[in-house]
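Why MerR family transcriptional regulator? Reviewers of the renewal asked for a concrete example.
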Amino acid sequence: MTVTDTPGATGRARTVPKPVRATIGRPRPQARDQYTISEVVAYTGLSAHTLRWYERIGLMPHIDRTHTGQRRYSDQDLDWLDFVAKLRLTGMPVADMVRYAELVREGGHTYRERLELLVAHREDVRRRVAELRDTLGVLDFKIDFYAGAEPAPERH
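Here is what the prediction returned.
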């Protein structure tokens, strides 16, 4: 995954991960670079309330608005939401995701801190994957045991 810096509508640089298309498991809307909140809801599976909350807590970059105040999401916003979905899937705490978003907005001088945050999270994910593998082994053992066991005769 690469990162690009491009100016947003506010003139501030916005750094977002390069897309891995349809990473959420749904087809991406046609590349118009202008999406309504309902289109983003359909694409991400997130609620409009959650998208507004992400914006309020600083997890989303500035979202452009029409002259009537309606949110207009860009392809970069969808790319960012794809990345956030991956972080959520790995169990990253919201506070850490918000911190990462803040670091991205602060610019390139925060690369080291971003790296440290992601490396620490990756280690946590690896620990949890190992725990899940161990747990899967126990389940496999129990399933094999019950699959080969003779049922006990019923008592009358």
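The domain at 37-149 is CATH 1.10.1660.10 (Multidrug-efflux Transporter Regulator; Chain: A; Domain 2). This is the kind of structural detail the renewal will allow us to pursue systematically.
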